Amino acid sequence: RSAEKELLPGFHQFEWQPALKNVSSSWNVGIIDGLSGWMSFVDDVPAETIARRFRYDVALVSALKDLEEDIMEGLRERGLDDSTCTSGFTVVVKESCDGMGDVSEKHGCGPAVPEKAVRFSFTIMSISVRADCEGDAVTIFQEQKPNSELSCRPMCLTFVDESDHETLTAILGPVVAERKAMLDSRLILSVGGLLRSFRFFFRGTGYDEKMVREMEGLEASGSTYVCTLCDSTRAEASENMVLHSITRSHGENLERYEIWRTNPFSESAEELRDRVKGVSAKPFMETQPTLD
After folding, report:
1. Cis preceding-peptide flag for 18 (omega within 30 of 0)
2. Strand, helix or coil for residue 105
3. Phi/psi at 149 (5° precision)
4. Is the CB of residue 147 less than 8 Å from the CB of residue 157?
5. Rg over CA atoms, the chain
6. What is the pLDDT of residues 231-265, one digit of tens each?
7. Do residues 183 and 72 touch, judged by C-beta distance below 8 A?
8. Which residue from 150, 156, 195, 291 could staple onto 205, CB 3.0 to 4.6 Å apart?
9. Residue 62: how many CB atoms within 10 A of its CB?
């Protein structure tokens, strides 16, 4: 049990500069009850909890410590003096989130749980460093199997249907808030015996279309509007299968949600729907550029 606790995210000391907004300053929080807050270990989470997750920054620290040898090896291979490379590290993270289908208890002896589960996970895709006076960043680690389950790190497991927008928002909302806080800060972590500073970039490229629509507050798959980033209707798309272009951004989707919410022109529901073209009445969680 004590060995297991050492292996869990939450064992490594680290610091954020500046400190993360709206995130606990405690570095040793391993596990969080996805709907009600801080726990230290698996043991402390009540049995009927529907979501368990690691705090995002703590999980990233654990992932980087797992790659410590690869990072040091990458510096050596590139001929970089590890004692001078203490800052300027950039980490690109791929995020994935998807439903896991039916996970219900088949033989009637387990606890009563919702039948569906959702998993949010991430993969460290690459780590690069900009040596103090050098111009270009040098890649010192590249994930060789970015789609393998071995490189994909689960961060949040939830008993919920991916179509249950409210519960999903309640659980993943704090995850998104933590990620947003990390974008404006640098992680200070001991790697190879020296404190080094890391910046993170997140790419939400592991969502399928259903999850993109869910995260972005767009109408579901039965919508008249077929695309997440253009205004084509089914009829238009069936007549014109070739000349499609991306005509709106994630930021513009967000603006359209605001139009739906405030209805500035006092239009009927039908007119309003025609104006926002496929943005639904659900609030957004995500406006990250994804590979659509």
Report:
1. yes
2. coil
3. -65, -15
4. no
5. 22
6. 888 888 888 767 667 777 777 888 888 898 899 99
7. no
8. 291
9. 19
User: In the beta sheet, which residues pair with residue 202?
Assistant: 93
For the purposes of burial, counting CB atoms within 10 Å of the CB of 134, is it exposed (0-12), middle (13-18) or buried (19 or more)?
exposed
Please write the tens of the pLDDT for every residue from 4-48. Answer: 666 666 678 899 999 888 787 777 777 888 888 777 677 777 778
Q: What does the alpha-carbon distance between residue 131 and residue 152 come to, in Å, rounded to a whole number?
A: 28
Task: Point out which residues pair with 51 in neighbouring strands.
Answer: 158
Quickly tell me which residue has 């579901």 as its tokens: 220
At 3, is the secondary structure helix, strand, or coil? helix
Cβ proximity of 9 and 30 under 8 Å: yes
pTM to 2 decimal places? 0.82
Q: Quick one: the chain helix, strand, coil %, rounded to 5?
A: 30, 25, 45
Distance CA 97, CA 117 (A): 11
* Nearest CA among 24, 172, 153 for reference residue 93: 153
User: What is d(CA 111, CA 197) in angstroms, rounded to the nearest whole number?
Assistant: 44
Q: What is the DSSP letter of 83?
A: T
Supply 225's token pair. 């509007």
Q: CA 102 to CA 105: how far, in whole Å?
A: 9
Q: List the one residue out of 89, 47, 271 whose CA is nearest residue 196.
A: 89
Number of H helices, E strands in the chain: 8, 10
